[in-house]
Design brief:
about 325 residues, mainly alpha, 3 helical TM bundles of succinate and fumarate reductases, 2 domains, three-stranded antiparallel β-sheet, 3 strands, elongated
Length: about 325
Amino acid sequence: MELPKIHSITKKLLVALVGAFLLLFLLFHMTANLFILRHDDGAWYSAFCHFMGTNWVVKIFEVILLGVVALHILLTLWLALTNRLARPTRYHQPQRSKTHTTSKLMAWTGVLIFAFLVMHFCQFYFVKTGWVKGQYMVEVEKLQNEEVNTIMQYSAQNGMEPKDVVAAVENQMAMYADQLAPEQVAEMEANMQSLKNAVPVAEFISKSILEDNLSEDRKWIRHITYEERQMLKEKAPECGVEPDFYYMSRELFHNGIMVLLYLVTFVVLFMHLRHAFPSAFQTLGLNNYKYNTAIEVCGQIYTWIITLGFAAVPILVFLGL
């Protein structure tokens, strides 16, 4: 088997650079996750997710991030494979080096983290793309156009269902159709069709209010199912239905098995980061005997902060805090 000829040190430098970028992203992601612990009905976390999901700069960065993750995995596998091919015959005697255990397990911890990422993407990221069903949310004002407001107003005033309101309006218009010019009839029919198209949205809003699915500030309708999302995308394509990551996260971490699985993954992540942080400095030539100890200490502090920060969310949510 032949692989492209790129010097080993070049591959190591690329792995280190990509890894350094991911170290920064982990700190950002961990900090954002802590918003889930706020008792504000998800206001901060939902606002953060809304910004991340609608800002075009963030969308470009998201694509770059996914590419960086894929590149890191491919480069690491490529480096491991080329090292393996360079020495097809293994040592007869086991090596007695001072290499840290976490360094020897980097490949295995990387594989486990990759498996976790696949699961994590299925639980969250792929919900945003629509590849996996989840829970969704939408801003109330983005559903309130003229037709929807008209139906809901008549419905509230007369104690009628939205579809009955439209039927009554249609019957009333039919009574005067013979007295109107053809162009007026065409305009009336167009308006009538707009009202009919607005009925599912008006019914959805009424149902959400009745079931108290609004956020505390009454700005968002939450707990939207995948089927309701599809209806809204068809009847109100400009409304911008979004995944309700706050609700999904809290539901996920009420499951003890999932909490345990996440905590095991964070232990694996700790082992991976424990070696990755100082290794990146060494590969990039930024280490020095004068401050190697400082790099080691900073690496340990960073690793503990990231691990405990991520672990705090599932633990505290599971405990009802």
